[in-house]
């Protein structure tokens, strides 16, 4: 099958190679001319045979502009896929704009990171069944082998919504592992923390790929001495918490893990300074001066 792919970064570039190795023809476009197959959106459209399919893998901030530019050179019967980490609420307006031109739209949450080329990508798809059916050869090539790793989650927006929740869960899982690591590192009893992490990888109820990656990180740097605790968030954790508030669903763990990332960016917490000041005021407790 033939596919246009816009955005050949860490995810998109590996997706192109996985698809090509499965026998599909992929025409890639990227701002980096050294890895791009064509130089313009118009040139990409010209390389594809109708009805055309173009998969967009660009940062969320430029997704709408990219899709609108594609809409100018695509037409009736073509399909655009957004596989980036877009907010789910952006999908329905996009689909409506494209539908007026006769262009189909699918939103696909993609998980797998830099390991996806080797292991396959988890795909969560939103959109019309007819469009999903047409793209199944592509989805089957990208997903891991076997019965898992793909879902048609629902109508337009469902793919990105599912990926948003996936990433919220990821926040919680990572933070639980991180807290366990810190507690053992602080303990007087555990003298081989990396070894404990490694022992959990088989036969335990907490084994997972994230745990495997933590073990790999500790192999490279047993005390994580080369890393800063400053941790960014991509936005999907925030959107997950926003939805929890809207729907009155108590996401205690995910919300706490998101706020922990905010705390990681403070060299000296203003809130904790206020707590220290209050303890001194009401109880005369000792404080540490900066």
From TrEMBL:
Ranges of residues in domain 6-phosphogluconate dehydrogenase C-terminal: 159-290
Superkingdom in the source lineage: Bacteria
Keywords of this entry: Gluconate utilization, Oxidoreductase
EC number: 1.1.1.343, 1.1.1.44
Keyword Metal-binding annotated: no
InterPro entries: 6-PGluconate_DH-like_C_sf, 6DGDH_YqeC, 6PGD_dom2, 6PGDH_C, 6PGDH_NADP-bd, NAD(P)-bd_dom_sf, Pgluconate_DH
GO biological process: D-gluconate metabolic process; pentose-phosphate shunt
Molecular function per GO: NADP binding; phosphogluconate dehydrogenase (decarboxylating) activity
Coiled-coil positions: none
EC top class named in words: oxidoreductase
PANTHER family assigned: 6-PHOSPHOGLUCONATE DEHYDROGENASE
Family: Belongs to the 6-phosphogluconate dehydrogenase family.
Protein name: 6-phosphogluconate dehydrogenase
Organism: Micromonospora ureilytica
């Amino acid at each position: 099958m033939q596919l246009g792919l816009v955005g050949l970064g860490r995810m998109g570039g590996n997706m192109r190679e996985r698809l090509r190795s499965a026998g599909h023809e992929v025409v890639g476009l990227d701002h980096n001319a050294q890895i791009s197959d064509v130089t313009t959106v118009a040139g990409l459209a010209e390389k594809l045979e109708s009805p055309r399919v173009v998969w967009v893998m660009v940062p969320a901030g430029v997704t709408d502009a990219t899709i609108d530019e594609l809409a100018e050179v695509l037409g009736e019967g073509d399909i655009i896929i957004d596989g980036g980490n877009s907010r789910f609420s952006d999908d329905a307006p996009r689909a409506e704009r494209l539908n007026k031109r006769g262009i189909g739209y699918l939103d696909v949450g993609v998980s797998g990171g830099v390991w996806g080329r080797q292991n396959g990508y988890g795909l969560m798809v939103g959109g019309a069944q007819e469009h999903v059916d047409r793209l199944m050869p592509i989805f089957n090539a990208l997903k891991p082998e076997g019965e898992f790793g793909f879902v048609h989650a629902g109508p337009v927006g469902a793919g990105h919504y599912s990926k948003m929740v996936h990433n919220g869960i990821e926040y919680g899982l990572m933070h639980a592992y991180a807290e366990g690591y810190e507690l053992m590192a602080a303990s007087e009893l555990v003298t081989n923390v990396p070894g404990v992490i490694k022992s959990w990888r088989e036969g335990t109820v907490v084994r997972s790929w994230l745990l495997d990656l933590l073990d790999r990180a500790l192999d490279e740097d047993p005390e994580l001495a080369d890393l800063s605790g400053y941790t960014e968030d991509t936005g999907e954790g925030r959107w997950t918490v926003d939805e929890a508030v809207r729907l009155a669903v108590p996401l205690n763990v995910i919300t706490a893990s998101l706020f922990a990332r905010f705390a990681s960016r403070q060299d000296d917490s203003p809130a904790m300074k206020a707590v220290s000041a209050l303890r001194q005021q009401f109880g005369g407790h000792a404080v540490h001066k900066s």
